[in-house]
Amino acid sequence: MTARASCPPKVGVVIPALNEADAIGRVISALRLRCNYPVVVIDDCSEDDTVQIATEAGAQVLPLAARLGAWGATQTGIRYFLQQNFDIVVSLDADGQHEPESLPELLKPVLHGDADVAIGTCPERVSRLRLVAWMMMKTTSGLRMEDITSGFRVYNRRAMQQLADPRATLFDYQDVGVLLRLQAAKLTLLDVPVQMQERCGGSSRIFHSWLVVGRYMLQTLVLGLSKRKLGRPMESKT
Amino acid sequence: MILWISASIGLLVAATILFLIRRDKLHVRHGVFWLFVALAFAGLGFAPSFVDWLAKLLGVGYPPVLAIVAIIAVLVIKILLMDIDQARLEVQQQRLIQRLAILEGNLQRRNKNDDHSSAP
């Protein structure tokens, strides 16, 4: 056994943020109250006080020189922690939807080696229309995860390496493309039921305009179809 | 007459491409493609019978249609190649932006460590 294997795993938290001044402070404070993992906020060129509030709340803020979108920001955090030899990365939204109380539950399977990726799932949170959208995405991509758009996830080092790769850079969102890449690498993905809240302030990057929703759906369906694993459907554990 | 116009345009475009490469306004990689296109235009202008011969060989009733379809196909391929190239550049740009943020993070950590070590 190596010396590294005997040490407790290093866990870091990544929060991509764009104009989340209303909620980011509360999210970071709640996280720091429950765990002492380093929290890194990737600021996607916010125009409000997100950077200042996040810094005051005790997070390290990495500012992006140009807007990269939610996945580009998350990948920056993953690359940052990978460079510092972290073993596990947690990603969660800056809008207060994800409950830090659920973090131990979500971390457990990855810490115990039962899964490479744990996905916090809460299908009850979404509208019927969004469930239809999920069904279409699952049909085209062959993915069998419960909540394929959840940003509340835990990745181990193998998953981090997969996602830090340049081939994972062109994804716009942390959903179908990311999950298909992880499955193609034969990593184990696990659905973990968690509690989620309504977002506090700010607005969703996708679900604020029908035009954006339409574009997002088209892109995601084409991406899922083109990267779909040929043969039998993919499986996930719960 | 139209054939002479086509030949003249081809030669003019070819000369412009060479001029742009000479002035470093166009990458030679792209210039080579456009030079071939321009020369093909000029060639068709000077030897119109080639299209007629090819159309007859392929069983196309109206030869100009063959020339137009061929041009459209070449342009579609070129646009596709441009999109592929743009995706490559986009990846490079995003990785650079990410790297800049990571370096800034490393700098913040170093400064913080320096502050802690220099504190009395």
UniProtKB/TrEMBL annotation, chain A:
Signal sequence, start to end: none
Coiled-coil portions: none
Domain of life: Bacteria
InterPro entries membership: Glyco_trans_2-like (IPR001173), Glycosyltransferase_2 (IPR050256), Nucleotide-diphossugar_trans (IPR029044)
Domain Glycosyltransferase 2-like: residue ranges: 13-153
PANTHER family: RFBJ PROTEIN, UNDECAPRENYL-PHOSPHATE 4-DEOXY-4-FORMAMIDO-L-ARABINOSE TRANSFERASE-RELATED
UniProt-recorded name of the protein: Glycosyltransferase family 2 protein
Automatic annotation (TrEMBL), chain B:
Alphabetized InterPro entries for the sequence: DUF2304
Entries under Pfam families matching the protein: DUF2304
Keywords associated with the record: Membrane, Transmembrane, Transmembrane helix
Keyword Transmembrane: yes
Transmembrane segments: 6-21, 33-55, 61-81
Protein name: DUF2304 domain-containing protein
Lineage, broadest ranks: Bacteria, Pseudomonadati, Pseudomonadota, Gammaproteobacteria, Cellvibrionales
